[in-house]
Amino acid sequence: MVGKFYDGFTDRLSKYGLQVYYIVLVLAYFLIVWIPVHYDEWLLVWGFLLAFAPFVLPIFALIIFRLLWLDYRRQQDYWSTEHTVLEIRLPEEITQNPFAAELFMRVLYQTGEEDTIVHIYRGKTSPWFSLEIASTEGVVKFYVWTRKRYADIVKSQMYAHYPTVQVAEVEDYTYNMPLNLDKMDLTGISQGLQKPDPYPIMTYVDWGLDKPDIKEEFKVDPLNSLIEFMGSLGPGEHMWSQIILRGHTQKYVHNLHKELNITQWIQEELKVQSKDYTDEGEKPNFQRLPEGTKEATKAMQRKEFKQMFDVGMRILYTANKEDYKSRLAGMATAFRSFEHGSKGRGLNGFKPIFDIGPFNWPWEDFLGIRRRGLKRRFYQGYVSRQYFYPPNAQEYIFLNTEELASIWHLPGKVAHTPTLIRMPSRRSEAPANLPVGEGPVNLPV
Questions:
Q1: What is the mean pLDDT of the chain?
Q2: What was the pLDDT predicted at 256?
Q3: Tens digits of per-residue pLDDT, 323-365?
Q4: Which residues contact 73 (CB under 8 A, 6 or more apart)?
Q5: Considering the entire predicted model, what is its pTM?
Q6: Distance (Å, rounded) from C-alpha 288 to C-alpha 277?
């Protein structure tokens, strides 16, 4: 009961931006009121703390040093590693459905490089990749960011599943808008999930895009909402979307007040769904479940049996101050097409997380200092493509390959955005009998 009251109390403080002031008030009461009134007790407590300090402080110091050392070595390893940006140039026509993207993403499930404790203390991390869509003044392009040593793998697998595209190493498009908050402005949001991670979002399978007999004109691709929105930008405007993914290795996550891996978490949610429909002995009877609950349990079980990734999602909008427009509402609803809607099937969807405000009370952002710092942090996190480790660590979500292929795949002709750049011709190999060598060649007439 006390815990629920405290949680409700702190939620109200958070609503009005008073968390820091509450802490200061408690400390002030302790120093000004409690210590003078209970001076003898304070001396006893202080003496007890001093007596144990030689035993306790070294342990705390070691813990803090370990955390700082790991952060330092990870950043050192990150900045000493070469990275590259690959542009995916689309042909006039793509006949593959999003399952091709799912097959491509299975290859991105790389969990090496931190196999031993020695690797970890040297700052090694499992590789992560960033699947991106960028709009420069309304011109929309697809990119993949990767460590340079994985570039050949990414290229070969992209050609394997999308044989008509072209993949080219290009300069990082974020260089077009270097951070200068005196001349430019920016805003950004990340994405969380409306319900616990075991519940899947609406995928291309739910939209019927996995069926090979659907004609292009009858397809409905939910990714078009984001592409059309990004294609509507005007001169001087830039919008970047990134999906950062790292192979999930069954590390533990905190949920339901205990440590669980994602598989155990799914089992816990299945128990939650079936708790009111049990037989004798408290065994769940799935036959008694309502139809909507059955759909939810089937969907969670389907999610479990595909490769799982740790995922972070960001959308950043930036422009010079004279070109800057309010685009936050469109960014917040960019992934609305992937939710099941009104909780009708009891499944999941994305929810926007506003990393840069809004601040509703004057004391939340004194003189705009906090907002400026958050903008700088969000920009640096996007440009460096860091999401899982400090200084740009954020809370990530769990998605499987089917869900990822739904929110990032190469669109077919169903995407009619005029500014979605496509190549005028298809990629093809040179003829096998093409003569090569020096000197004149006598060709048959």
A1: 82
A2: 45
A3: 999 999 899 998 988 887 654 455 888 999 998 877 777 777 7
A4: 121, 122, 123
A5: 0.82
A6: 6
Check residue 148 and report its DSSP letter.
G
CA distance 285 to 411: 42
Whole-number Å distance between alpha carbons of 190 and 308: 20
Domain regions of the chain by residue span:
2-62, 82-248+307-407
Task: Provide CB contacts within 8 A for 143, sequence distance 6+.
Answer: 85, 86, 87, 88, 130, 131, 132, 133, 134, 170, 173
- Closest listed residue to residue 401, CA positions, set 264, 267, 241, 201: 201
pLDDT of 276 reads: 63
Selection from 252, 246, 254, 240 nearest residue 381 by Cα: 240
At residue 234, what is the residue type?
G
Three-state SS at 258 = strand
Rounded distance between C-alpha atoms, residue 109 and residue 150, angstroms: 12
Is 70 exceeded by the pLDDT of residue 108?
Answer: yes
> Using an 8 Å Cβ cutoff, are 158 and 88 in contact?
yes
Contacts of 236 (CB under 8 A, 6+ apart): 137, 319, 320, 322, 323
Residue 52: CB atoms within 10 Å: 10
Buried b (16+ CB within 10 A) or exposed e, 250-268: eeebebeeeebebebbbbb
Which one is predicted more confidently, 172 or 222?
172
Helix (H) or strand (E) run with residue 12 in it? helix 2-15
Query: Which residues have a Cβ under 8 Å from the Cβ of 327 and sit 6 or more positions away?
Result: 187, 233, 237, 239, 317
Per the rule left: phi > 0, alpha: psi between -120 and 50, beta: everything else, 113 is left
